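Annex B, item 7. Sequence and structure tokens for protein A, then protein B.
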Amino acid sequence: MKRSAKIAIGSVVAVVVLLGAVYGAGVFYFNSHLFPNTKLGNQDVSLQSERQLASGFNSVASNYALEISGLGFSYKLDSSKIDMAIEGSSLASSALSRQDSVAWPIELLGSHDLSDLLSVSYDESKLKSVVKNQVKIYNQEKTASENATVVYDESSAVYTVKPEVVGNQFKSSLVLAKVKDAVDSLQDSCELTESEYDTPDITSGDERLTSAAEKGNSLLAGTIKLVTSTDHSDVASITKDQISKWVSFNSDDLEMKVDDSAIEEWLGTSTSGLNTVGSKRKWTRADGTKCSVEGGSYGWKVDTTGIEKTIASQLKKVDFTDIEVTCSKKAATYAGAGKRDWKAYVDIDLSEQKVRYYDENDKLKFETKCVTGTKGKHDTPKGVYTIDWRQSPRVLKGENDNGTKYESRVTYWLPFIDSRGIGLHDASWRSTFGGNIWKTSGSHGCVNLPTKSAKWFYENLPSGTVVVVHS
């Protein structure tokens, strides 16, 4: 072989070896470094090592800020406010692993973008809080949107449609969604538009408005009467004046809403004359004595809660049926406010120190002297009560003024204030009754009777008999 041929072959081999070495060196290098023309977002990260790239990823998180603006809104969201972080090492490793280092000569001719690898983590609750607060500040000087709704027009005395109000406040949830998208993709700006406004959900064209107005006006056309349960006499009437104050329509779904508290307040006033429990009543006793009494637990007590529920139910159904006034407590009769509402009764006259029993025809059936509670110390409570129950015999227990305990055995016991242990009973330890004994040496509050008298009451007065204590 000629020398020149050998030289040529040698040169080719040398070139091949050199190229192989260069290629091998490239494969080795690009196994741990990025290709030229590689970007991470807006940053040029060409030829960076894995360590440098990891640092670059971390730098993106620490330096990130989002400019939120539009329609007068302006706020710069710094990454530190939402605890933003990026797993730099993991992402750098992923970036290098997707490079085809074997094809590096070809890859050098193109450009590369690692932005799709950017994956950030942040505290979503803090982002929500920041956005909500900034929107709140912005909205303070803006007009709020309002749904079209149905209202009562006092001038025309009808329910009518009130048109919607289209405001210019932002809706936090819409702003948050847009900001979150921008943060997730690491955008540097976020432009808010009218699409993020809080617009009305119900507008004037909604058919539900017409239906609601018609229902409201149908209520104004009738009257609901409250009547007594005994003879159905009128107590009060619910007219459109009350209905218009009680009935409204929810702004979010146009469902009828009834003001329960307003109804109860009206009931308290309208039926106050029916409530006699504890009220002052006046009557003339069968012997001609004019008497009065106040207090006690007996009488009429209107069940305002039950009636209120009935009224509310009928309003919702546009039902004008009369409503009976129900009572949680009832008396034997009703003659009007301030008047006697019992028939047969035990009359305990503190001034006279006598106990009488009158039947339902007001005929005196029994009379006896008594000793009531010591004046100023253990006064027998005035008021109208009923005999709660009866027992024979009974041991009465209590405490003396000096703190010592006492036990008194009685044969006949008829309590009328059971919670305080006060009732009618025999007092065999007393030799006299009536007069002024009660002023200095009375009972602990009970009504002491001669044994024969106590026996008569025990044998003739059933539980539930009315007891009137007065002076």
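Protein B:
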Amino acid sequence: MEEKKCVKCGRPAAADQAFCPDCLAEAEKYPVKPGVVVLLPRHDQNTKPPSRRRHSPASSEEQIQKLKQRVNALWLALILALSTAGFLGWALVEDHLEEERGNLLPGQNYSAETIGGDEQN
């Protein structure tokens, strides 16, 4: 037959009790009126609450290796971002220059003026 456990802390409790002696003494300090529903957290000793901390590598060499990998990945991301920005900047400048040139054919990117000499009256 399975041993009865305290519903609050999971320690062994008497067969006719829901709480262990320590939790029962603590609960008696704060009496509850009959008929009031009390929700207790489910206690399972076989499972641990999930850890919020990341598990760090065991040795300092592994930590250094992981940090080097992160630094290399950040450098690569920076280089890609800068090269993309440079390419987009170049494309915008080329587009602007092409608009300024208009639809000129080669050799038509100048203006000509006649200076005196051939005047007709």
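Comment on protein B: The mean pLDDT is 78.
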